[in-house]
Design a protein that fits this description.
Blueprint lengths: L41 H29 L5 H24 L8 H17 L2 H29 L5 H23 L8 H21 L1
Length: 213
């Protein structure tokens, strides 16, 4: 999932996912071998792992906030399903942080609070509000992952093969969350366009900052 007054980021209209289709996937439980990195590629790897870890951390906090409000509602199993996938995403990036000795963003304490507030706040608007938040955040994260896929393919697709598989899998699951939100009347939320734009601006800011500090 991502962040809006929080983490992570897509354009207002969903893009066609890159590299989607059959093929082997490095699932959340699969070990990713530490890459032997050239001096020039190390900053790229660190930036990708740091920002993706922050994004998945923020997405977890958003779903936690939504479940705190809607945990006994009819959409609770659906939110829990999406949250469980986000937990696996975060677990994988935690592993990559250790394997590649990447420090987390210093903004994690802020994303911890902001993500939960965004999730709970959107849920207070009702089920449609929670789904509108999901659509906005997951659209942003999917586009962000697509941008990373393009960058890694241009850089060295063979060298980053395993990381590409991880990102493609997670991108597809974020896109699934986005579609679930649309199927559950996200667009019927009052002031949907305004809410979506505000959340996605927050996601873009979160990505920019988490890549750098």
């Amino acid at each position: 999932m991502a962040m809006a007054a929080v983490p992570a980021v897509r354009s207002l209209l969903p893009r066609r996912p890159l590299g989607r289709g059959p093929g082997p996937r490095a699932g959340p439980g699969a070990a990713l071998r530490p890459c032997s990195t050239r001096a020039g590629s190390r900053p790229l790897l660190e930036r990708i792992i740091r920002v993706d870890h922050a994004g998945e951390f923020g997405a977890n906090r958003i779903y936690a906030g939504q479940m705190a409000v809607l945990g006994r509602s009819s959409v609770a199993p659906l939110i829990q399903h999406m949250w469980n996938q986000e937990k696996e995403h975060l677990k994988k990036f935690n592993e990559l942080m250790v394997a590649h000795r990447v420090r987390p963003t210093v903004l994690l304490p802020f994303w911890n609070v902001a993500g939960f507030v965004l999730g709970a706040g959107s849920a207070l608007l009702g089920k449609k509000g929670a789904m509108a938040c999901t659509v906005a955040v997951e659209e942003s994260i999917s586009e962000h992952y697509n941008n990373q896929i393009r960058t890694l393919i241009e850089e060295d697709p063979e060298k980053y093969k395993e990381l590409l598989q991880v990102i493609k899998q997670f991108r597809d699951e974020e896109q699934e969350h986005h579609d679930i939100g649309l199927e559950h009347n996200a667009e019927a939320t009052p002031a949907y366009s305004v809410l979506k734009t505000a959340i996605q601006l927050g996601c873009k800011a979160a990505i920019f900052l988490s890549e750098r500090i």
